[in-house]
User: Which sequence fits this backbone?
């Protein structure tokens, strides 16, 4: 047999007083060479002799990375792993395999964080700490193959080279993201509740579960199961402390948070109001606003007014229904049907979005026609105004003061004067359907999201005629579909199509954005690979700026 040919695949040189040359071969061996003597006056390079040779990987070594001021070296291999070695003895310190089942292509060293930065064929980037021997963070930063990676410590800039683009990221440390992963179906709705003693979170998903979470520990402490019909909408009523859900078969149900009992919402005669899927639910407490129209600053003040709560349901049958939820003397929540009517005349104009605005005392609905309609909140079935401008279906609505915000399948958010029914601005911060909108309490910020995995925080800047100010863009390879605010830690919760819920910190409003500059983009905290040993990642995030590679790069 012909002897198997072995060749070198990678090379690294450590300069200084003790020159060392490290080579990796096609069989997974590392070779370490040193000069026999220092360079003489003739300028000729000294001969090298082999100091040690060791089998490190099962397959060829594609890259060797040395640490300039330490006797540490890292090797990447075609066996889909990397290893950290003592460069003097060849002893393996720790090793990690790529949990995505692909090859690591590039490696860089962060001396400040003592982290090895690796990138792979699928655009994933991992930060692995040398001393904790664990994964600090794992992110999918691009869908392209990453061929090389470079880290610049001073500006904390990470450069990723792909076949057709060079991407630059700013690395930011000390930012944490939280993920809730108990649900297995698309997140329908999220609601939070804060009390003097604790913070609670309510979530509903199309896996037919409603879950109660502790906002401090982010642990699921209670779960309800809908046994028959898919949950399609949810709203939480803070005064009655109940949850109302809408279902695929047109049912409306009220759930007691404390005893987990459920009751169908029906008319006095026991009839169902809707004949098709419940697509949206909204909550209001009309009586909780004083005569000047000022809103209480907290749920506790709102509840102190003793106002009954109203639930508005929208359906694919084009109808709106109104339900009054009140409490009896023993604290039991009671639901009373008030009225229902056909809100959208077009045969295919299904109701897709509803919101309540106590400032105007109105309910707003939107649907497939792209028209928003304003309805009286306390009686009446005649539209008070229509808001026309969208070129496709209205998918989400939110109101703040005298302003109405509508998101659409035409990829825009439109801002309206809710009192005069005038369009004020057209906002283009998405390139896909806007799935959800949220006015962040106690701020001037709006947040919108879509199936492109982008949650955009922006200031509508109503004091200027044109434009909005994008404050922060959070990105992740998920499909975002619902939003809620959690005041316990000043964060926004984003529900995903996958069933995951992610908490993003609300950006600081007084951050300086120079004219013509772009908002920072921060991909969200990814899942730490199962092989990591450090528990919850301490949270390194990156901000992205990318541009095409020049020809020949």
Assistant:
């Amino acid at each position: 047999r012909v002897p198997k040919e072995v060749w070198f695949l990678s090379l690294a040189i450590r300069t200084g007083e003790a020159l060392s040359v490290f080579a990796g071969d096609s069989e997974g061996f590392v070779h370490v060479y040193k000069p026999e003597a220092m360079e003489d006056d003739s300028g000729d390079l000294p001969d090298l002799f082999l100091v040690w040779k060791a089998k490190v990987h099962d397959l060829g070594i594609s890259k060797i990375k040395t640490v300039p001021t330490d006797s540490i070296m890292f090797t990447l291999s075609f066996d889909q792993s990397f290893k950290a070695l003592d460069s003097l003895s060849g002893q393996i310190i720790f090793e990690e395999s790529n949990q995505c089942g692909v090859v690591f292509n590039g490696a860089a060293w962060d001396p400040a964080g003592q982290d090895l930065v690796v990138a792979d064929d699928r655009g994933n980037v991992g930060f692995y700490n040398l001393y904790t021997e664990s994964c600090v963070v794992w992110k999918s930063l691009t869908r392209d193959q990453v061929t090389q990676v470079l880290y610049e410590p001073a500006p904390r800039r990470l450069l990723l080279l792909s076949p057709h683009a060079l991407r630059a990221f700013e690395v930011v440390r000390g930012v944490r993201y939280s993920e809730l992963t108990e649900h297995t179906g698309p997140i329908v709705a999220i609601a939070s509740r804060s009390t003097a003693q604790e913070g609670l979170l309510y979530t509903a998903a199309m896996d037919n579960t409603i879950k109660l979470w502790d906002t401090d520990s982010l642990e699921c402490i209670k779960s309800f199961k809908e046994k028959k019909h898919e949950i399609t909408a949810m709203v939480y009523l803070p005064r009655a402390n109940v949850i109302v859900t809408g279902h695929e078969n047109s049912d409306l149900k009220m759930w007691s948070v404390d005893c987990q009992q459920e009751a169908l919402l029906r008319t006095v005669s026991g009839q169902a109001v809707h004949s098709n899927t419940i697509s949206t639910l909204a909550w209001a407490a009309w009586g909780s606003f004083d005569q000047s129209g000022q809103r209480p600053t907290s749920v506790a003040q709102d509840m102190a007014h003793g106002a009954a709560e109203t639930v508005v349901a929208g359906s694919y049958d084009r109808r709106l229904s109104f339900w009054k939820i009140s409490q009896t003397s023993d604290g039991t929540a009671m639901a009373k049907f008030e009225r229902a009517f056909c809100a959208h005349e077009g045969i295919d104009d299904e109701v897709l979005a509803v919101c309540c605005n106590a400032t105007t005392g109105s309910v707003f609905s939107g649907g497939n026609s792209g028209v928003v309609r304003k309805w009286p909140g306390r009686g009446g079935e005649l539209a008070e105004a229509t808001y026309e401008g969208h070129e496709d279906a209205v998918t989400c609505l939110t109101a703040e003061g005298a302003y109405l915000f509508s998101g659409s399948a035409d990829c825009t958010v439109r801002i309206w004067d809710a009192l005069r029914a005038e369009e004020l601005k057209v906002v283009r911060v998405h390139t896909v359907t806007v799935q959800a909108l949220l006015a962040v309490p106690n701020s001037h910020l709006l947040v919108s999201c879509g199936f492109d995995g982008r949650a955009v925080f922006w200031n509508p800047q109503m004091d200027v005629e044109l434009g909005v100010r994008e404050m922060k863009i959070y990105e992740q390879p998920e499909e975002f579909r619902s939003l809620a605010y959690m005041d316990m830690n000043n964060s926004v919760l984003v529900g995903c199509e996958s069933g995951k819920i992610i908490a993003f910190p609300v950006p600081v409003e007084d951050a300086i954005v120079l004219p013509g500059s772009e908002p920072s983009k921060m991909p969200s905290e990814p899942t730490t690979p199962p092989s990591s040993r450090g528990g919850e990642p301490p949270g390194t995030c990156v901000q992205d700026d990318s541009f095409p590679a020049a020809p020949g790069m």
